[in-house]
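To close the section, here is one more complete example, presented without commentary so you can practise reading it yourself. The ligand is zinc ion.
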Amino acid sequence: MTVSIVSRAQWGAKPWNGNPSHVALAQRTEFFIHYDGAAHITRTGNSVPQAIDRQHQSQGWAGIGYNFVVDQEGTVFEGRGWERQGAHCPGHNISGLGVQIAIGGDQKPSAEALSAARALYDEACRKTGRRLAMRGHKDGYATACPGAILYDWVRAGMPAAHAEGDDTPAWDGKSFPGRAAFALGRKHDAVTLLGQRLTAHGYGRFYKVGPGPSFGKADKGATAAFQRAQGWTGSDADGVPGPSTWARLMAAPKAHTPVVALAAGVKPGARHTQVPELQQLLIKAGYGPIKGAVTTYYGPNTQRAVARFHYANPAYRSKGRSYDPAIGAKGFECLQRKANRK
Ligand SMILES: [Zn+2]
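Output:
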């Protein structure tokens, strides 16, 4: 298993202010865990390394001082990377790789963050060819960092679900592989099958490139949409496949009702034989009630229901309109998909 790392170019790092020294992998003997400080961190994504980069540059440093940063979604961001000297723990910036888990104070690290940090540690050991010493920042310097929770985790040996060395049974290529197969950034063959089945069920739009073995945001988003379409909510629709999600994905997709095109005459204020269909779809998809329906008249009540659909699905709203009572061709297609899921 390897870790996917969001590169500096991908998250929008500023150019180095100066040039951090090269450190050979052979010089690395320690692996330091940090946190962000006293305040809880609610943001995830690119803004996490960007904020640290800005702060460290404003201190006169070359740029982000950690070798890597892990956010609460388990995304790993490149800081100084594997082979540049860090600026995270005086006296240990050459021997030690420094990884910040982007939480603060008494905030609980997510399972995804711990799992990603552990995967990064395993990768570091593989790259350096030795077992790096596991350290918290306070092991090298008088500081509260990385906070009590992460420090306990480091001292416990950085346990994470599916860490290397676990006796994970081989996957049979079809049964539910266990939730541990679906941690962000981890690779598992079941993730490829997951993506293929999601695509077969009509969720291919989440993938910019095709499904692959590394569980990423596309997989999570597509899975969550699939789960919501089952009528599930809350933790049942968290984007992480469980046994029920898996069983339904492996089943053949329900036949889709073919999408019907919108007739040109279906307009606010007009009468048209397709208006009853529009009204029924609006009601079925949850944008009713429509007083007076079903009728061929695209009157104010139908217009209000269409506007409700547009509030919920602003991508289909005409540009510049906050209240849009006129359904468009693409919106009508979307409405059919939504109604057919109920
Ligand atoms: Zn620290």
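Once you have examined the tokens, check your reading against these statements. Residues 5-155 form a domain with the Lysozyme-like fold (CATH 3.40.80.10). The chain has three domains: 5-155, 179-250, 275-341.
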